[in-house]
Design brief:
Radius of gyration of chain B: 20 Å
CATH topology of the largest domain in chain A: ABC transporter involved in vitamin B12 uptake, BtuC
Structural class of chain A: mainly alpha
Number of strands of chain A: 2
Radius of gyration of chain A: 24 Å
Helix content of chain A: over 70%
Strand content of chain A: under 5%
Order of helices and strands of chain B: HHHHEEHHHHHHHH
Helix content of chain B: 55-70%
Number of helices of chain A: 16
Shape of chain B: globular
Strand order of the largest sheet of chain A: 1-2
Distance between the termini of chain A: 52 Å
Order of helices and strands of chain A: HHHHHEHHHHEHHHHHHH
Oligomer: heterodimer
CATH architecture of the largest domain in chain A: Orthogonal Bundle
CATH class of the largest domain in chain A: Mainly Alpha
Largest sheet of chain B: 2 strands, antiparallel
Distance between the termini of chain B: 51 Å
Largest interface: A-B, 65 and 56 residues
Number of strands of chain B: 2
Structural class of chain B: mainly alpha
Shape of chain A: globular
Chain lengths: 379, 318
């Protein structure tokens, strides 16, 4: 999880900027090609994957910047979808702005889950979010019933766009892409600044960060709320191409798959969330196209989505120690850019070891107060 | 309703909560044992229990076109009695638990994120295996205890079923044995030493890796027992343990994830709460009790973050 910080983290060289500019232009051209050239089904799938990449961005923020585990990101997406849909259906909100209701709801639920669990070891956040992931479909079924709830609104492109009314999927694609681009841009900017560095400090050296005045608990709380907000926004955006919502959309397995992909593709850049979104949406499509989902037995197992995700998780855990495959290249870069003072590192390691031993001794003394009292007793 | 009628209804609901409470308590104890010894939250604990229940089902069914384990269904021979099938599943589950610790967790145990990721990988792998090997249909294992309508005692106007009491006593007995193993034997002493100070344990010659492997094996065995016993009540499905895992996790939280004894009490407490809420509060049906358990969990973490553990002990984990 620990990404070594260096001075180059917050600045970008000119060649890198050019590379990013070229990638951005290529991405924009590809998006236009997809929007106007692909079938409505493919365009809708792309819209969904772009929306979900925001939720993955939230997960990357949590796992790779804050070192926290959330296993309920799928449920937070569902919360956002629910809020967005009901903002339109029950409160008459304009459809174009409905994802903001998702953003708000996701942020609130994220904060509510985070407030108690962040005071405890990190495992508690994982535990509570997993519980949320399991409970959410049950809650939604209870609240909305068994049948899907349809959005009362349509996305008609303005006349200046030249998009025909029957091609609403193209307009929906652009709305989703616009929201996602702006959000990822803003959050990436946030993470590259002092807040991002404070996140990393609170992840790698929380005690040192506290000593330097970083409010670690509050920072983590903001991080989880921001991550929840991104997931909620993703849920709101999913309602744009999908137009309906029901409890089967957000099973707990969705959260676990999202965690697997965020872990595998994660790195210190939010852009790594884009391939994760694409895999989540297009892998099942690819499996169905090949009729692999209907195969059973051992062959069926190896061709199943569950096996693929399990293999991905285990490979990420083993090969990258949970840091994600993108991190491998980042680590090489940071290793070459920062000369390591081996002697200083060895002294620091020994100091840490001594501190650990002292802590253990303290614990032993706490467990056996009689030893201390005997020691302190005058002869 | 008269007072005696209300009392017998309360008693009935208390009895009804016992079987579920046993399963929650067993899972909570298993989760606490693993977390306490290795610091890893084993999220695959429920799936391991589900998988071993299917193994018990295979043993108990004998050669069957629906439950074949390989193309040669005669490998397993005739159907086994349910007790023997559950015992067989426990043994296999313990082997899988030890294997998981040795092969999957130990190489990456230094990194908690990787370790939790690996347990989630196992979660998905076991779910996929069961769905692809035996399908997603609901199956019936049966209880090792008598389950006919006459197999009950009438106590204070409430019915205490033999299998409910059997499950509860078995679970209490097994977990009691586990406590004795931990407190009275050399293996238990080694386990306690490892959980309290791993470095010190190495220095006094305890083979920490073996002890940890044993801890995972025991946890898997307890989960398998819980799955096998509760299968007669809730039937066997690939998602049968999802709900139980959440209650198990909530119960383990009561013990600060570190105290198997408090986790055990928490299991029965949550089952009691679930049954009473579902029974007495009109707008809460059996499905929504899970949500209330989640709410209770959040409230507990708000009010008392360390669970029922003394505060200092839980806060040391940070």
């Amino acid at each position: 999880m620990a990404t070594t910080m260096n001075a180059k983290d917050s600045t970008t060289s000119t060649p890198t900027r050019i590379v990013w500019a070229v990638i951005s232009v290529a991405f924009a051209v590809l998006s236009l090609r997809v929007a106007f050239g692909a079938t409505p089904k493919i365009v809708t799938d792309f819209s969904n994957s772009i929306a979900l990449s925001l939720a993955f961005g939230g997960l990357v923020l949590l796992t790779h910047y804050l070192g926290l585990l959330s296993l309920g990101q799928g449920a937070l997406v569902g919360v956002g979808a629910y809020a967005a849909l009901h903002a339109v259906n029950d409160f008459g909100a304009p459809v174009v702005w409905m994802p903001l209701a998702g953003l708000l709801a996701g942020t609130l639920v994220g904060a509510v889950v985070a407030i108690p669990s962040l005071r405890l070891p990190k495992a508690y956040l994982a535990l509570l979010t997993l519980s949320l992931a399991v409970a959410y479909p049950i809650i939604l079924k209870q609240v909305d019933g068994n049948l899907p709830v349809t959005l009362h609104g349509a996305f008609v492109a303005p006349s200046w766009t030249g998009i025909a009314e029957k091609d609403e999927h193209i307009w929906e694609f652009f709305i989703v892409a616009g929201y996602a681009f702006v959000t990822l841009f803003l959050v990436q900017g946030l993470l590259r600044g002092p807040i991002g560095r404070a996140f990393i400090a609170s992840r790698d050296e929380p005690e040192a960060a506290r000593a330097f005045g970083v409010p670690v608990y509050r920072l983590r709380l903001y991080g989880v709320a921001l991550s929840g907000g991104m997931a909620g926004l993703a849920g709101g955006l999913l309602m744009i191409p999908t137009n309906f919502n029901d409890y089967t959309h957000y099973p707990e397995e969705l959260s676990i798959k999202m965690f697997a992909l965020a872990m595998a593709f994660g790195g210190s850049r939010l852009i790594s969330s884009v391939p994760a979104g694409l895999v989540l949406i297009f892998l099942p499509v690819w499996l169905i196209d090949r009729n692999w989902v209907v195969e059973y037995g051992w062959v069926g197992l190896f061709k199943s989505e569950g096996f693929i995700y399990a293999a991905l998780l285990l490979a990420t855990a083993y090969l990258t120690r949970g840091k994600g495959f993108m991190h491998l290249s980042e680590r090489r870069k940071s290793e070459t850019s920062v000369p390591v003072n081996r002697q200083a590192s060895a002294v620091a390691d020994k100091l840490v070891a001594i501190e650990d031993r002292l802590n253990q001794l303290e614990e032993l003394v706490d467990e056996r107060p009689d030893i201390r009292s005997r020691q302190e007793m005058p002869d | 309703m008269t007072d005696s009628g209300g009392m017998s209804l309360f008693l009935q609901r208390t009895f009804d909560s016992l079987a579920n409470g046993s399963a929650y308590a067993a899972l909570a104890v298993a989760i606490s044992m693993v977390f306490r010894s290795t610091g890893v939250l084993n999220l695959a604990q429920g799936q391991l229990a589900m998988f071993s229940t299917y193994i018990a089902l295979v043993f108990a069914t004998g050669p069957s076109p629906y439950l074949k384990f390989s193309s040669n269904t005669d490998v397993l021979g005739a159907a086994w009695p349910i007790w023997a099938a559950i015992l067989g599943a426990i043994v296999i589950s313990m082997v899988i638990g030890a294997f998981t610790e040795r092969v999957i967790i130990r190489p990456i145990s230094a990194d908690p994120v990787a370790a939790v990721g690996a347990t989630l990988g196992l979660y998905l792998l076991l779910g996929a295996f069961v769905r692809k090997q035996w399908g997603g249909r609901t199956m019936f294992l049966g209880s090792p205890f008598p389950q006919t309508v006459d197999d009950r005692w009438d106590i204070g106007g409430a019915r205490l079923w033999h299998d409910t009491l059997g499950i509860t006593l078995t679970m209490i007995g097994v977990l009691g044995l586990l406590a004795v193993l931990q407190r009275r034997t050399k293996v238990g002493l080694a386990f306690r030493a490892v959980t309290s100070n791993r470095t010190g344990s190495v220095m006094v010659g305890i083979r920490v890796s073996r002890v940890l492997m044993l801890g995972w094996a025991l946890a898997a065995g307890i989960g398998a027992l819980a799955g096998g016993l509760i299968a007669g009540e809730i039937n066997v499905r690939p998602d049968m343990m999802g709900r139980l895992l959440i209650f198990g996790l909530a119960a383990a939280t009561l013990g600060g994830l570190r105290s198997p004894a408090l986790a055990f009490i928490g299991g029965y407490l949550f089952a009691f709460l679930e049954t009473m809420l579902g029974g007495y509060v009109s707008f809460i049906d059996s499905q929504v009790t899970l949500v209330w358990a989640l709410l209770v969990l959040i409230i507990i973490l708000f009010v008392r973050p360390s669970g029922l553990l003394p505060r200092g002990e839980a806060w040391q984990q940070r």
